[in-house]
Design a protein that fits this description.
It is built from ten helices and twelve strands. Helix 1 runs parallel beside helix 2. The longest helix is centred in the middle third of the chain and has 11 residues. It is globular. 47% of the residues are buried.
Length: 255
Amino acid sequence: MITKRIIPCLDVKNGRVVKGVNFTGLNDVSDPVELGRFYSDCGADELVFYDITASAEGRALFTDILTRVASTIFIPLTVGGGINTLEDFDRVLKCGADKVSVNSGAIRDPSLIGAAAKRYGNQCVVLSVDAKRVDGTFRVFAKGGREDTGLDAIEWIKWGVDQGAGEIVLNSIDTDGVKRGFDLEMLKAVCQSVNVPVIASGGAGSIQDFITLFETLPKVDAGLAASIFHFGQVEIPTLKRALAEQGIPVRIQHM
């Protein structure tokens, strides 16, 4: 049985990890290098590093901090933010990333997904989608959740997977940072539409939220969270023990 992954997310702005609610009101949290090392040591399965203002500010991702994070962790690293070209993929992979997450860049140039999958393999291309309910549909938003693209989220995800995206990160803007649980309705719609790993992001507030996620939607591969891990409300070893006790398969790190 495939183990469920627990993935902390570092949202990085100006070289610091920050966290907000519904994608706004960002607060300073920590140094990304220190935090990355902490998560690697305490049993996280992967780490996601987002340079969250790169796209909105129209610049390339910070590679110096990324290189330092990659060199201090021993778990797979997914990197996103300002990924607009194959050269961006190349640069980030050379810094030590294992997978590259595309979001706004793929919306601007949809051919990027297929081109990257062809050059680096499907397993390297993660399609990250910021989605929100608009008039009863799930709509794709760009630029850190600030811009409604008009795209239907489910159709966009299906198309992206057809082009070669090997993994989907679904960020529900409606539940982001609210800590009342993952967006099960939106996640279910995505899981029914694609056959690649789906990572749930946005809304985790407790250990029970992860149990509910994996018990309700067995097709979800991973739970991603930020603030509950950053502020110590949920510790990863404790979370994994609780999941294992519920019969949910996880990788337990023996210290």
